[in-house]
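Weekly structure sync, notes
Attendees: PL (lead), two postdocs, one rotation student
Agenda item 3: pending single-chain targets
PL asked that the sequence for the first pending target be pasted directly into the notes so everyone works from the same version. It is reproduced below exactly as submitted, 338 residues in total.
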Amino acid sequence: MQIIRLLLVWCLCRALLPAAGPLDIYFVDVEGGQATLIVSPSGESLLVDAGWPGFEGRDAERIVSTARQAGVRRIDHLLMTHYHTDHVGGIPQLAERIPIAHYIDHGSNTETGPRAEEFSAAYQKAVEKARRTIVKPGDAIPIGGLRVQVISARGELIQKPLPGAGAENPLCASAERRAEDKTENGKSVGILVTYGKFRFINLADLTWNLELDLVCPVNRVGTADVYLVTHHGMNMSGPAAIVHALRPRVAIMNNGAKKGGTPQAWQVIKDSPGLEDLWQLHYSLPGGREHNVEEAYIANLEESCQGYGLKLSAQADSTFTILNARNSFSKTYKPPRR
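Predicted structure, written out during the meeting:
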């Protein structure tokens, strides 16, 4: 009887608890850079990069506006993936507009020269007033309600397959390698975000050979429900061996009107097995009519645009909905049949 009473109390308590909220991911338009705001069901925030500097604070203002929309009053964690201007450049302007509690990065800038030193100095000044963590592959970023795993950083990759991954990748046999990339792109911090059964992968600007190494000869990552297209859809990244091995249900391309969205990279994504839809932050001028999705799935149609974004809301069962802020078009994706 005592056990039955305890079970009844447990069930009653569960019934009174509020249902877990969704995982919200906002893809902010920073004109071909990256600014991805992740808000966990607990309300904790992780911003990945902060777009470009200059433009009278355009990108910082767009991020702050998105944060307010999400009910975020401070950035709990800011992940700076690598020291390129379209990712790190907007951080100082953002820090002037909203509190940032914790910075995460791969360490010092691996590039040299006046511009590299400028980016490094500006970033270092911004992080002086906050906590900083340098991550390596295999680390986890602690965020309430989520599992955020670092799978690439500073040119290194996870060595062991993640749980459920490790299958041989038949696409590796025909994959061709390219010249070695020694830029900060290859040092990008890449993450896999897991919420229940939902999985979202963001590799920032990781380049071709490192992506191959991540999934060849075995796929160390597994699959993902949503894939943020690597390197804005530039053909320096995104070989079929990784895109098709991830088997995303949906891909989101954070391209600009003239940056990214190259026809070759676009076609690799569209040909991915099991892909239901590709969404774009911009209509790609290089892509033309043949290599752009339907207008309903594009956040910004004009080169001089209002900076509309995309919002993804995911449930723990891997159901998720994407909303286009430009036209209020939304689509819900149900869990795949196992």
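Discussion points:
- Confidence is low (pLDDT under 50) at residues 3-19.
- The longest helix spans residues 2-16.
Action: rotation student to compare against the earlier draft before next sync.
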